[in-house]
Amino acid sequence: MKYALVTGGSRGIGRAVCIALAKEGYSVLVNYARNHKAAEETLQLIQEVKGTAELMPFHVNDKSEIDKALDAWEQAHPQEYISVLVNNAGIREDNLMIFMEDDAWNRVLETNLYGFFYITRRVLKNMLVKRNGRIINITSLSGLAGMAGQTNYSASKAGLIGASKSLALEVAPRKVTVNCVAPGFIETDMTQDIDPAEHKDRIPARRFGKPHEVAAAVRFLASDDASYITGQVLSVNGGLHT
Ligand code: NAP
Which residue of 125, 139, 150, 190 is 20 to 30 Å from 111, comparing CA positions? Predict the structure, then answer.
Protein backbone atom coordinates (compact mmCIF):
# COMPACT_ATOMS: atom_id res chain seq x y z
CA MET A 1 0.00 0.00 0.00
CA LYS A 2 1.28 3.50 -0.80
CA TYR A 3 0.33 6.35 1.52
CA ALA A 4 -0.36 10.04 0.96
CA LEU A 5 -0.84 12.63 3.71
CA VAL A 6 -2.96 15.63 2.73
CA THR A 7 -3.17 18.47 5.24
CA GLY A 8 -6.45 20.33 5.30
CA GLY A 9 -8.17 17.43 3.56
CA SER A 10 -11.58 17.98 5.10
CA ARG A 11 -12.76 20.68 2.71
CA GLY A 12 -12.15 22.54 -0.54
CA ILE A 13 -8.98 21.90 -2.50
CA GLY A 14 -7.64 19.45 0.08
CA ARG A 15 -10.75 17.28 -0.18
CA ALA A 16 -10.45 17.19 -3.99
CA VAL A 17 -6.77 16.24 -3.67
CA CYS A 18 -7.65 13.41 -1.26
CA ILE A 19 -10.17 12.01 -3.74
CA ALA A 20 -7.80 12.36 -6.71
CA LEU A 21 -4.98 10.56 -4.90
CA ALA A 22 -7.33 7.85 -3.62
CA LYS A 23 -8.34 7.21 -7.24
CA GLU A 24 -4.62 6.76 -8.02
CA GLY A 25 -4.46 3.97 -5.46
CA TYR A 26 -3.06 5.86 -2.48
CA SER A 27 -4.34 5.16 0.98
CA VAL A 28 -4.99 8.72 2.07
CA LEU A 29 -4.34 10.19 5.51
CA VAL A 30 -6.90 12.97 5.71
CA ASN A 31 -5.69 15.71 8.05
CA TYR A 32 -7.91 18.50 9.35
CA ALA A 33 -7.97 20.90 12.28
CA ARG A 34 -11.44 20.90 13.83
CA ASN A 35 -14.16 20.18 11.28
CA HIS A 36 -14.70 16.50 11.99
CA LYS A 37 -18.00 16.32 10.11
CA ALA A 38 -16.43 17.63 6.90
CA ALA A 39 -13.51 15.22 7.30
CA GLU A 40 -15.98 12.32 7.64
CA GLU A 41 -17.62 13.49 4.41
CA THR A 42 -14.24 13.38 2.65
CA LEU A 43 -13.77 9.85 3.97
CA GLN A 44 -17.16 8.84 2.59
CA LEU A 45 -16.43 10.38 -0.82
CA ILE A 46 -13.18 8.41 -0.95
CA GLN A 47 -15.02 5.21 -0.10
CA GLU A 48 -17.50 5.97 -2.90
CA VAL A 49 -14.62 5.83 -5.41
CA LYS A 50 -13.45 2.56 -3.82
CA GLY A 51 -10.48 4.25 -2.19
CA THR A 52 -9.09 3.81 1.31
CA ALA A 53 -8.39 6.52 3.84
CA GLU A 54 -8.15 7.33 7.52
CA LEU A 55 -8.56 10.55 9.45
CA MET A 56 -5.53 12.18 11.05
CA PRO A 57 -6.54 15.32 12.92
CA PHE A 58 -3.87 17.75 14.11
CA HIS A 59 -3.19 21.45 13.91
CA VAL A 60 -0.43 21.95 11.36
CA ASN A 61 0.95 24.82 13.44
CA ASP A 62 1.36 22.60 16.53
CA LYS A 63 4.57 20.59 16.46
CA SER A 64 3.65 18.35 19.37
CA GLU A 65 0.26 17.42 17.86
CA ILE A 66 1.99 16.55 14.58
CA ASP A 67 4.58 14.36 16.29
CA LYS A 68 1.92 12.60 18.36
CA ALA A 69 -0.24 11.82 15.32
CA LEU A 70 2.64 10.65 13.16
CA ASP A 71 4.25 8.63 15.97
CA ALA A 72 0.95 6.80 16.47
CA TRP A 73 0.57 6.16 12.74
CA GLU A 74 4.13 4.89 12.38
CA GLN A 75 3.69 2.54 15.34
CA ALA A 76 0.55 1.13 13.73
CA HIS A 77 2.31 0.82 10.33
CA PRO A 78 5.89 -0.18 11.14
CA GLN A 79 6.68 -1.35 7.59
CA GLU A 80 5.05 1.59 5.79
CA TYR A 81 5.93 5.19 5.04
CA ILE A 82 4.25 8.24 3.61
CA SER A 83 5.52 8.73 0.06
CA VAL A 84 3.35 11.70 -0.92
CA LEU A 85 2.89 14.76 1.27
CA VAL A 86 0.56 17.55 0.18
CA ASN A 87 0.92 20.64 2.37
CA ASN A 88 -2.46 22.17 1.64
CA ALA A 89 -3.86 23.43 4.96
CA GLY A 90 -4.06 27.19 4.94
CA ILE A 91 -5.92 30.20 6.24
CA ARG A 92 -6.25 33.84 5.29
CA GLU A 93 -6.88 36.80 7.59
CA ASP A 94 -6.86 39.79 5.32
CA ASN A 95 -6.35 43.38 6.37
CA LEU A 96 -4.41 46.34 5.13
CA MET A 97 -0.98 46.14 6.73
CA ILE A 98 -1.43 49.45 8.50
CA PHE A 99 -4.31 47.90 10.47
CA MET A 100 -2.94 44.36 10.80
CA GLU A 101 -2.62 43.01 14.36
CA ASP A 102 0.36 40.90 15.42
CA ASP A 103 -1.95 37.93 15.98
CA ALA A 104 -3.28 37.98 12.41
CA TRP A 105 0.26 38.13 11.05
CA ASN A 106 1.46 35.31 13.31
CA ARG A 107 -1.54 32.99 12.85
CA VAL A 108 -1.27 33.08 9.06
CA LEU A 109 2.50 32.58 9.01
CA GLU A 110 2.34 29.82 11.62
CA THR A 111 -0.37 27.87 9.77
CA ASN A 112 0.67 28.38 6.17
CA LEU A 113 4.47 28.38 6.48
CA TYR A 114 5.59 26.97 9.84
CA GLY A 115 3.15 24.09 9.34
CA PHE A 116 4.95 23.16 6.14
CA PHE A 117 8.28 23.14 8.01
CA TYR A 118 7.12 21.04 10.98
CA ILE A 119 5.36 18.37 8.91
CA THR A 120 7.78 18.15 6.01
CA ARG A 121 10.80 17.79 8.28
CA ARG A 122 9.00 14.99 10.12
CA VAL A 123 7.88 13.07 7.01
CA LEU A 124 11.01 13.67 4.91
CA LYS A 125 13.29 11.26 6.75
CA ASN A 126 11.54 8.12 5.55
CA MET A 127 11.28 9.45 2.00
CA LEU A 128 15.05 9.97 1.96
CA VAL A 129 15.73 6.53 3.41
CA LYS A 130 13.40 4.90 0.86
CA ARG A 131 14.72 7.13 -1.94
CA ASN A 132 11.22 7.96 -3.07
CA GLY A 133 9.00 10.90 -2.29
CA ARG A 134 6.77 13.67 -3.56
CA ILE A 135 6.21 16.88 -1.63
CA ILE A 136 3.63 19.23 -3.07
CA ASN A 137 2.97 22.58 -1.45
CA ILE A 138 -0.14 24.60 -2.17
CA THR A 139 0.95 28.18 -2.51
CA SER A 140 -1.04 30.94 -4.21
CA LEU A 141 -1.13 33.54 -6.94
CA SER A 142 -0.94 35.94 -3.98
CA GLY A 143 2.54 34.61 -3.17
CA LEU A 144 3.70 35.22 -6.74
CA ALA A 145 2.03 38.48 -7.67
CA GLY A 146 1.00 39.97 -4.31
CA MET A 147 -2.46 41.14 -3.38
CA ALA A 148 -3.50 44.23 -1.43
CA GLY A 149 -4.76 43.27 2.03
CA GLN A 150 -2.74 40.06 2.12
CA THR A 151 0.76 40.94 3.30
CA ASN A 152 0.63 38.11 5.86
CA TYR A 153 -0.82 35.59 3.39
CA SER A 154 1.47 36.64 0.51
CA ALA A 155 4.51 36.41 2.80
CA SER A 156 3.53 32.90 3.87
CA LYS A 157 2.90 31.73 0.31
CA ALA A 158 6.03 33.37 -1.16
CA GLY A 159 7.98 31.82 1.73
CA LEU A 160 6.60 28.44 0.78
CA ILE A 161 7.89 28.88 -2.77
CA GLY A 162 11.40 29.83 -1.61
CA ALA A 163 11.53 26.99 0.87
CA SER A 164 10.32 24.51 -1.76
CA LYS A 165 13.02 25.58 -4.21
CA SER A 166 15.78 25.18 -1.62
CA LEU A 167 14.47 21.87 -0.32
CA ALA A 168 14.16 20.59 -3.90
CA LEU A 169 17.93 21.08 -4.30
CA GLU A 170 18.67 19.33 -1.01
CA VAL A 171 16.68 16.17 -1.71
CA ALA A 172 16.84 15.69 -5.50
CA PRO A 173 19.74 13.18 -5.29
CA ARG A 174 17.50 10.95 -3.16
CA LYS A 175 14.68 10.92 -5.73
CA VAL A 176 12.43 13.16 -3.68
CA THR A 177 10.78 15.99 -5.61
CA VAL A 178 9.41 19.21 -4.13
CA ASN A 179 7.01 21.36 -6.13
CA CYS A 180 4.33 23.99 -5.61
CA VAL A 181 0.88 24.42 -7.07
CA ALA A 182 -0.29 28.04 -7.16
CA PRO A 183 -4.06 28.38 -7.51
CA GLY A 184 -5.74 31.62 -8.53
CA PHE A 185 -9.35 32.11 -7.44
CA ILE A 186 -10.92 28.73 -6.63
CA GLU A 187 -14.50 28.10 -5.46
CA THR A 188 -14.14 26.98 -1.83
CA ASP A 189 -15.13 28.12 1.67
CA MET A 190 -12.02 30.30 1.66
CA THR A 191 -13.35 32.43 -1.19
CA GLN A 192 -16.98 32.47 -0.08
CA ASP A 193 -16.73 36.14 0.86
CA ILE A 194 -15.37 37.10 -2.57
CA ASP A 195 -17.90 38.02 -5.24
CA PRO A 196 -16.89 36.36 -8.54
CA ALA A 197 -18.65 39.13 -10.46
CA GLU A 198 -16.09 41.61 -9.13
CA HIS A 199 -13.13 39.58 -10.41
CA LYS A 200 -14.38 37.64 -13.43
CA ASP A 201 -13.41 40.29 -15.94
CA ARG A 202 -9.78 40.14 -14.74
CA ILE A 203 -9.60 36.37 -15.21
CA PRO A 204 -8.91 35.39 -18.83
CA ALA A 205 -10.96 32.18 -18.35
CA ARG A 206 -13.82 34.39 -17.03
CA ARG A 207 -14.59 32.14 -14.07
CA PHE A 208 -13.27 30.88 -10.75
CA GLY A 209 -11.58 27.48 -10.82
CA LYS A 210 -12.92 24.30 -9.21
CA PRO A 211 -11.07 22.33 -6.53
CA HIS A 212 -10.76 19.30 -8.82
CA GLU A 213 -8.87 21.44 -11.35
CA VAL A 214 -6.21 22.12 -8.72
CA ALA A 215 -6.23 18.49 -7.62
CA ALA A 216 -5.42 17.42 -11.19
CA ALA A 217 -2.16 19.39 -11.04
CA VAL A 218 -1.30 17.83 -7.67
CA ARG A 219 -2.07 14.36 -8.99
CA PHE A 220 0.30 14.92 -11.92
CA LEU A 221 3.14 16.20 -9.71
CA ALA A 222 2.64 13.17 -7.43
CA SER A 223 2.85 10.75 -10.35
CA ASP A 224 5.83 8.83 -11.75
CA ASP A 225 5.44 10.93 -14.90
CA ALA A 226 6.67 13.96 -12.90
CA SER A 227 9.83 12.28 -11.63
CA TYR A 228 12.17 14.79 -13.35
CA ILE A 229 10.23 17.91 -12.32
CA THR A 230 11.33 19.57 -9.10
CA GLY A 231 11.55 23.06 -7.59
CA GLN A 232 8.74 24.28 -9.85
CA VAL A 233 5.58 26.30 -9.35
CA LEU A 234 2.61 25.16 -11.44
CA SER A 235 -0.07 27.86 -11.65
CA VAL A 236 -3.72 26.86 -11.91
CA ASN A 237 -5.37 30.22 -12.38
CA GLY A 238 -7.35 30.46 -15.63
CA GLY A 239 -4.65 32.71 -17.08
CA LEU A 240 -4.65 35.29 -14.26
CA HIS A 241 -0.90 35.59 -13.81
CA THR A 242 -0.59 39.17 -12.57
P1 NAP B 1 -10.72 25.97 2.81
O2 NAP B 1 -11.86 25.53 1.98
O3 NAP B 1 -10.88 27.12 3.75
O4 NAP B 1 -10.18 24.70 3.64
C5 NAP B 1 -9.08 24.87 4.49
C6 NAP B 1 -8.62 23.52 4.97
O7 NAP B 1 -7.46 23.72 5.80
C8 NAP B 1 -9.65 22.82 5.84
O9 NAP B 1 -9.54 21.44 5.59
C10 NAP B 1 -9.18 23.15 7.26
O11 NAP B 1 -9.55 22.18 8.23
C12 NAP B 1 -7.68 23.13 7.06
N13 NAP B 1 -6.95 23.87 8.10
C14 NAP B 1 -7.03 25.19 8.39
N15 NAP B 1 -6.21 25.47 9.43
C16 NAP B 1 -5.62 24.31 9.79
C17 NAP B 1 -4.68 23.93 10.79
N18 NAP B 1 -4.16 24.82 11.65
N19 NAP B 1 -4.32 22.62 10.87
C20 NAP B 1 -4.84 21.70 10.03
N21 NAP B 1 -5.71 22.00 9.05
C22 NAP B 1 -6.11 23.28 8.94
O23 NAP B 1 -9.46 26.38 1.91
P24 NAP B 1 -9.14 26.07 0.37
O25 NAP B 1 -9.66 27.18 -0.44
O26 NAP B 1 -9.47 24.68 0.04
O27 NAP B 1 -7.55 26.26 0.42
C28 NAP B 1 -6.64 25.18 0.47
C29 NAP B 1 -5.25 25.74 0.23
O30 NAP B 1 -5.21 26.37 -1.05
C31 NAP B 1 -4.81 26.79 1.23
O32 NAP B 1 -3.45 26.64 1.53
C33 NAP B 1 -5.06 28.08 0.51
O34 NAP B 1 -4.22 29.11 0.98
C35 NAP B 1 -4.72 27.68 -0.91
N36 NAP B 1 -5.31 28.54 -1.93
C37 NAP B 1 -6.67 28.64 -2.06
C38 NAP B 1 -7.19 29.48 -3.04
C39 NAP B 1 -8.67 29.64 -3.27
O40 NAP B 1 -9.06 30.48 -4.09
N41 NAP B 1 -9.53 28.89 -2.59
C42 NAP B 1 -6.33 30.20 -3.87
C43 NAP B 1 -4.97 30.06 -3.71
C44 NAP B 1 -4.46 29.22 -2.74
P45 NAP B 1 -10.97 22.29 9.04
O46 NAP B 1 -12.02 21.83 8.07
O47 NAP B 1 -10.78 21.36 10.19
O48 NAP B 1 -11.13 23.71 9.43
Answer: 125
